[in-house]
Amino acid sequence: DIAMYGAKARGNGEYQIYDEGLHQKTMSLLRLETDLRGAVDRDEFSLRYQPIVSLASCQVVGFETLVRWKHPDQGDISPEIFIPIAERNGVILPLGHWILDQSCVRMKAWLDQMPEGRDIFINVNISGKQLMQPDFIPRFREVLRQSGLPGISLKVEMTESVLIENVDDMAAILNQIRELGVRIAIDDFGTGYSSLSYLHKFPIDVLKIDRTFTARLEKGQKLEKDLVPIIISIARNMSMEVVAEGIETPEQLRILRDYGCEYGQGFLFAKPMSASDAFGLISGDAQLPDFCSEDAGSA
Ligand code: C2E
Ligand code: MG
Ligand code: MG
Ligand code: MG
């Protein structure tokens, strides 16, 4: 195993190939792999909610659920690290089910307390491995039924790569999701595939422009500058909504508005927050920073 390999490398004098940093990293990944099993039962996960905002009105139109893992002795571990591990060792199945269930229950509670005339949705990330489970759709239907949440209040996010891997099966699954009333968003759009022809094969409602595009908008990088309006016009032609991810500056917001981008998400507006802070925004007890009034953002 890894530890023995280290010792051997020392013994035959090839000490330079033994990389202590790499060894540590490998050991801690193995450790995380083990610790992830059971972390659901030990209640170590929690959910945060990041506002999705109308760029024209600065109103919160929805939230994206983002999972957090508090490791007992390593503290907060990024989902960028543990989600891929959970996908490999299968923990994503119970974890993903828990995330979907909690999100539906939470959203239903919000709906029930929502001020008159207000309407929001919730976005939940779904991994490819979850989608490929034969009982994904019946379990999904059951989660909706038990929570009482109407499918229309929910969107699922998945990446392009998940769809491309298995076009026919995925098209069938996405159609069944749609039959539940649930809408479909493509996450991190633009990072995966150069061919756009696959878009026609799936019932897609929303494109989320990856934050790497947003980040490069104001740095005068031609490719990204040109691509973002192209993505927006493709989406419009196909009657999809567009959400720009990772908006961090008023200048990025201004450019995206100029391009006619309808929705956005990012630290400029708000970081992922607790459920009670999220409800504060819905109920009107709290407000996002104002980038929409007459003189906002003109500085
Ligand atoms: P994602 O679905 O694309 O989520 C957006 C990520 O961008 C989140 O990171 C969010 O905190 C971050 N973000 C939002 N606004 C900004 C910004 O203005 N600037 C920057 N630099 N980052 C911003 P997070 O929460 O660390 O999640 C990372 C990824 O982990 C997610 O990317 C998603 O792929 C995965 N993930 C998170 N939660 C879940 C989950 O519940 N289920 C599954 N399957 N995957 C999840
Ligand atoms: Mg997402
Ligand atoms: Mg994303
Ligand atoms: Mg991402």
TrEMBL record:
Transmembrane segments: none annotated. Residues 29-286 form the EAL domain. This is Uncharacterized protein. The chain holds residues 321 to 619 of 619 of the full protein.
